[in-house]
Structure formats: C-alpha cells, structure tokens
C-alpha cells in the first residue's frame, strides 16, 4: 500500500478498508526534484601529447547516394592506454579479497565441455547416466516420421554444508520441457502436493502419541514414473553413441524437465500405496493412511 501523507510503501497482512473515504484525483501530486551539480572535464577531448595514441584500423564507409544526409551521432574516438598506465591506476587486491576469489575456482561448470575436463564432474555425470540406464528409462531408436525430438541439457550444482564445504557435486540430465507441445507430447500435468496443514497435523499427532516419524528421500523420484505418450529426446551431450549419431532416445520413464513428470510419478506411487492397503484421504490427495488391528 502507498501512504500518500508519508509517501511510503507499506506491506501489511492486516488491512482495514475505509469505504467512505475516496481519493482526490484532481489534486496535483507534490513533486520533489533533487539537483546534483557537476562539472564536465573537457580534458578528455584534448589529445594526449605525452602518451602515444594507437588508433584502430580505419574503416571507410560506403559513400551515401546524393541527396541523402548522414545524421549519425558524433562518436568520440577510443583512446588506447599503455600497460604501464593501467598498472599505475590499478589497486592491488588484498589477501582476504584474493581468498574470496579463490572460492569461485570450484564453482559449477558452464557447459558440458568444461565438465568433461574435470574428473569429479565427469564421475558424477557417469553415475547419472548409469542410474538412468539401470532404470531402463530409454531405448535408442530411429526417429519416426513426423516426429520431432526434444532437446536435453545438463544442469550442474555444487552442494555445500553449513560450513561452506563442498559435500557433493550434483548434476542432472534435464529435458527442455518448454518445447513440449500440448496434446502431442503431454496431456495432463497436474499432481497433488501435500498441504502444510497436513504436515503439521502429522507432526502434532506424533508428538502427542510418542510416535516415530520416518522421512524418506526417493533418489531420482521422477525417473520412476511410466509415460503414456511417445516422447523422443536427443542423445545427451557427451554421451552420444558413436556411429549412431542420427538416432534418438525413446523415453519409457519420465525425466526431469518433462511437464508430465510429477503426474506420472504420483500415479505410480499412488498405485503402490493402494496395492499395499493404504487409503487416500478424500480431502487431501497427498495423504495416505492404513488402519491395522
């Protein structure tokens, strides 16, 4: 909200609306202008006689036809400085600043070529491809007619602990889902998400009754969802099969980045729970319970 008296922006969750007061749109707003004096140094326009100036190679523009006037703005020629001048005007980096910059050495790679040169990232990529192939996520096939493969990319992330120490180099092969076409590459994308009220209720019941709470993190969860559509993706960069570069990968299971990946994963785990005697809450589709005894 904007306070017209104090001329401040206020953020509040508790607001009382006064419907009797109205805004006077005819009143002129008070405008405050702040002027800062400055002086223009014209010494830059004068040639420097003490320092030799190296001009870039001249480039002649083609002559304009008669009758046409060139209205291009006047450009100041670029001034080249010697290394000695740059060193004199440069402030040396202190030891603590240099230590700070050293932390960026172990940052994430910007592309696959850089990651393949680093042994730790190469090992992490091999593990990701191994997990995908072990799960039989895809098969190498020829691209059918009237089909367009979806691109894939690698996403790199360095996981650190509370002390800032690197504990794991994570990478993920992600499908460029933004290029998927509705009705062709996917249909339904909705997947239920647990509400915070349900999480608090479970924790409260466990605290009152002395129950134990087990938290489980399903590694590569989305890779376990079965796809219903025929989806073809390009071979991952850095792992293209030699001699079969023209072939693509037909997905059997979902990959991260697909629009329907959350839904197909939820469909599979929902089927698993119900086959093992769990019932879904009619009010919270992410909550399952099982009565024993």
UniProtKB/TrEMBL annotation:
Residues 38-79 are annotated as: Disordered. SUPFAM superfamilies: DNA/RNA polymerases. Residues 135-293 form the Reverse transcriptase Ty1/copia-type domain. Signal peptide: none annotated. This is Reverse transcriptase Ty1/copia-type domain-containing protein.
């Amino acid at each position: 909200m904007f306070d017209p008296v104090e001329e401040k922006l206020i953020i509040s969750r508790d607001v009382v609306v006064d419907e009797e007061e109205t805004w006077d749109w005819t009143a002129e707003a008070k405008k405050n202008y702040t002027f800062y004096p400055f002086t223009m140094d014209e010494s830059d326009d004068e040639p420097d006689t003490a320092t030799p100036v190296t001009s870039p190679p001249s480039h002649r523009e083609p002559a304009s036809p008669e009758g046409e006037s060139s209205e291009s703005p006047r450009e100041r020629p670029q001034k080249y400085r010697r290394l000695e001048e740059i060193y004199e005007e440069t402030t040396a980096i202190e030891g603590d600043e240099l230590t700070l910059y050293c932390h960026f050495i172990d940052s994430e790679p910007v592309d696959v070529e850089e990651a393949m040169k680093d042994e730790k990232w190469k090992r992490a990529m091999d593990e990701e491809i191994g997990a995908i192939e072990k799960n039989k996520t895809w098969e190498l096939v020829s691209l059918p007619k009237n089909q367009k493969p979806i691109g894939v990319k690698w996403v790199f992330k360095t996981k650190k602990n509370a002390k800032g120490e690197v504990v794991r180099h994570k990478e993920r092969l992600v499908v460029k889902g933004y290029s998927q076409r509705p009705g062709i590459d996917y249909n339904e994308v909705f997947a239920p998400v647990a509400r915070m009220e349900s999480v608090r209720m479970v924790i409260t019941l466990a605290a009152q009754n002395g129950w134990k709470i087990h938290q489980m993190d399903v590694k590569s969860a989305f890779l376990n969802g079965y796809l219903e559509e025929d989806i073809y993706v390009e071979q991952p960069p850095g792992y293209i099969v030699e001699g079969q570069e023209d072939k693509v990968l037909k997905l059997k299971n979902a990959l991260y980045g697909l629009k329907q990946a959350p839904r197909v994963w939820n469909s599979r785990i929902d089927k698993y729970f119900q086959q093992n005697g769990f019932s879904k809450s009619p009010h919270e589709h992410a909550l399952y319970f099982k009565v024993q005894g």
